[in-house]
Amino acid sequence: xxxxxxxxxxxxxxxxxFADAKIHVFTHAVHYGSGxxxxxxxYNTKRGPAVFRLPEHTRRLFDSAxxxxxxxxxxxxxxxxxxxxxxxxxxxxxCYLRPVVYRGYHSLGVFPGACPxxxxxxxxxxxxxxxxxxxxxxVDVRVSSWNRMAPNTFPALAKATGxxxxxxxxxxEAAIDGYSEGIALDVNGYVSEGSGENxxxxxxxxxxxxxxxxxxxxxxxxxxxLRIARDFGFEVVETFIPREMLYIADEVFFTGTAAEVTPIxxxxxxxxxxxxxxxxxxxxxxxxxxxxxxxIPDRYNWLTPVYAESETKARKPALVAG
Length: 322
Hints:
- By secondary structure, the protein is α+β, with helices and mostly antiparallel strands.
- The chain folds into two domains: about 5-125, Aminotransferase class 4, branched-chain amino acid transferase, N-terminal domain (D-amino Acid Aminotransferase, Chain A, domain 1); about 135-275, D-amino Acid Aminotransferase, Chain A, domain 2 (Alpha-Beta Barrel).
- It has eight helices and 17 strands.
- The strands form two sheets. Strands 8, 9, 10, 11, 12, 13, 14, 15 and 16 form a nine-stranded mixed β-sheet that branches.
- Helix 6 links the parallel strand 12 and strand 13.
- Helix 2 (about 55-65) crosses helix 3.
- It is globular, with a radius of gyration of 20 Å.
- Mean pLDDT is about 95; it is low at about 310-320.
């Protein structure tokens, strides 16, 4: 992640230089994980840079804050606009956005008390999360020995920084054993999700994915693929999935803002299908990439332009005949 290319960071309503984007070591979130965040992509489409599903990501950030009783000092519209302003300030055309809401510096103790709610948004250039070759070839994964959090312990629907300590364990274990990623089960033994991705399983032309009750995060890319698949006429079933179904699936793939749509070619060294990206995965993947690339109309209104059309044209060099 080339942070050296980042010029500005948005902090509590102000654009500050990257070098000045600092917090105190006694910030509450550093000690207790009292933070929330979002991961958002800006794509350089054929019609100019556009942020993918910005209102939905912003709403989920506010939903997370509501669950954790953190009142943001900004509106949803202000946060969405701050994301646009930050992309423009850094002169990015394709980037990853990271809004973070956290309990700031005031006092320490589990009860956050008078600690302020601070908001920071970062942006940087980030390529394919699981590697560019994974998009076509797929990845090798394992079922993790670590489960996702049990219901009524941590709220899985909140995208909280502390929840990702569980993700770190899953991802580290997979990497140490030579896998690209891990798949976690919930406390009842049903398939939940990857360390940072939702999962889809295809069997006999039907598409299955775990429900929200399986301790998953309600992924924005997940909901996008659900919509696309249903519009294509596929039968999509949100249901509890037993572990062994992973081994007999025709196709399996991950979705996520970072992972986008990534095929899985083996699980626990058992080959998925024929060991290559399957036809349904490929169709959904190509439609998704065509959408975010601006190759097809924005029929769902999922793309928020970074620049007005006139500005986009002005930023592109004119063709000179010669």
